[in-house]
């Protein structure tokens, strides 16, 4: 299952029991069906053997709960749409003042979640303000109506320090570079260890001047079928090399035959034997491109791949920080996931004790709650012991800490997805736990299972995976970015409440729009 996200706002308002019932009833009239209240109505219907007197029974139960048990009958509710879920929670035990909390739970593919939440909150406010005005005295009427307050994004201090350490221009350049479609595709090809070996041998041959031998060597023969793929990805290119016939020393490397024609018509001579260049040996050679050199340097391809996997999970660029390479062969980046920091350390090589110590030092400095170490080579015993001891000490010290060791980017991606799911569930539990007692079930587990089943159905229906020769979807500018965490939430003229609830309206097409009881009995709960 892909990662779930939650966004919420608060409204400083104390709504009594009857006011809450009226709010849910008005939302039902807007085709936003309250899940918990619908389940209760279904129970009342079976109890009374019909729909008569359901309203009276609800009123009696509400009065009993509030007078005898000293607890609210309605603590909030859920409103389920196809690809997102709205919720309302009445937090009456806040330290400062009671508030109404409204929010949205959504997945990566949900379009414009912030605008949908904004429209939903506006609709709720317009419904509750008349109730507030009718219940306040003249002194209170002089006060301005409350406004929705958007919660500040939770950014760990370690993540802030990590960003502050980087040069601003370098940090921006690193992020910009990792989003280039060509670089993303090239990095995916470099997950193949044989491709990296071939490109490194090609680099060495190019530097030493025997690149022509590469075309006839064992390395070329074992990788010949994939040369075209590397060329299409921009990792290798074909050049024309002029070599001395006597010494075999490379004299010129030219980009194409047109450049060769310019050289051969000149009076240039070989610096080794003095013969005219036109009489020297001309061969076609394979040469790694600047893109290949950039990706292979310090294992940058691995950081690029991890960056893509984060973006594929729906993490916005604004919540990812990539540290520029410092030439020691190590790569590092951080991600802020719902207020929890992830530190990713990468090395295209062995997991050595030196690399392990460096990863531990960086984790202590950033105070990351999740440490992900990716090394494509062998894990040295001492390095493994160092990392496991560090993880155990962090947990014993009372810190929420998790460590992942992976030998390739794909394995790290799977572990990150599972870690993100756990973070999502913790956040959902924190936001929705007040509603659990209202229905006797875990609301967060219900919501998570809904999205899991939806995604499973979409996969069974033949959803297509991203092809290897296309750019990732998040690179296309015309696709709405569901997780642009700093997008404005005050743009109210773009989407009306009617447009937001149109999805819910369509899902109830053909049903009786006048009776919630009818919908409940027919098994539709929005």
Question: What labels would you give this structure?
Answer:
single chain, 526 residues, alpha+beta, Transcription Regulator spoIIAA, 3 domains, 5-stranded mixed sheet, 23 helices, disordered C terminus
Report what the structure shows:
By secondary structure, the protein is an alpha+beta fold. It is built from 23 helices and 13 strands. The strands form three sheets. The chain has a five-stranded antiparallel sheet, sandwiched between helices. A five-stranded mixed sheet has the order 9-10-11-12-13, with helices on both faces. The protein has a three-stranded antiparallel sheet with strand order 7-6-8. The longest helix is centred in the last third of the chain and has 24 residues, at 409-432.
The structural domain count equals 3
Helical content stands at 40-55%
Give the percentage of residues in beta strands: 15-25%
Total number of helices: 23
Oligomer: single chain
Structural class by SSE content = alpha+beta
Mean pLDDT rating: 78
Query: Span between N and C termini?
Result: 22 Å
- Backbone CA Rg: 31 Å
Global shape: elongated
Give a quick account of the main beta sheet: strands, pairing sense, barrel closure: 5 strands, antiparallel
